[in-house]
Task: structure prediction
Amino acid sequence: MDSDRFLVALGYHGHSFHGSQIQPEVRTVEGSLRQALRRLTWWSEDCLEMSSRTDAGVSVRLNLARVDIPKPVSEKASEDKIVRALNDHLPVGAVVLSAHKAPQGTKVRYAEFRRYIFRLETIEEWPHDADPEQLSEACSMVEGEHNFSNLSRVEDGRDPVRNVDACSPWLASDGTPIGFTIKARSFVWNQVRRIASSFSGIASGRIGISDLEKALNNPEVSVDLGRAPSEGLVLWSIAHPDFKPPLEDKLPCASNLSRRPEEPREYRRWLSMSGYEMSSLLESEWLSRLN
Result:
């Protein structure tokens, strides 16, 4: 059947899915999209492709999917109606924000950039009095082109060399670092989570900043600087040459987030609340677009 190509912007809560990629017998984002397309009778083989892969627990403010929609549908339905139809058939943890017709040869994975944020204070070892200058130095260290073999999970046949366009601290209103933002055209699997673990290790004293430098400059010497939990990570924004993003690429205001307590027992309770805060932050972002 003839079809028209659409780029569909969507977001989802990490706790609602076992990652983005299709897996047997568990709910994933791609699996939920497939089910929605089948219910709408829009499904055809190879009509769906995700732009960015995310692990279980990773939330997404904005990702892209390529959906080839049958011409009899696309010629009659407006883009807003396509958005509403998909949302009517998606589980509550996911939302389609916009859909735009794209050139037939558009490759959804060829993004101009992807931006992630990581809330470092959700990591157990993260100190209450983290040094913003130390974090800024660590952020600067990962910028530019590097072989990230020691800061990723390298898959067979995948090039571990990536160019990080920008990395900077995410600060509270009083200047206290609570996380960081990182921007690149593409990332290797687990790259941001392993970078987050190295930043946390430097701040807590588990490793030195020289250990991060060695891991980057000597990729042939295998080291493990740890991998941070997925719950602190959010795919925040994505840019594509054939798509106008429905949300601005700007960091969330930290003033609406609670501060991490110093006492370990209180931290464990706060960690649960921080998850609700990030979910609420995403819902506010999505509602600002849909309303």
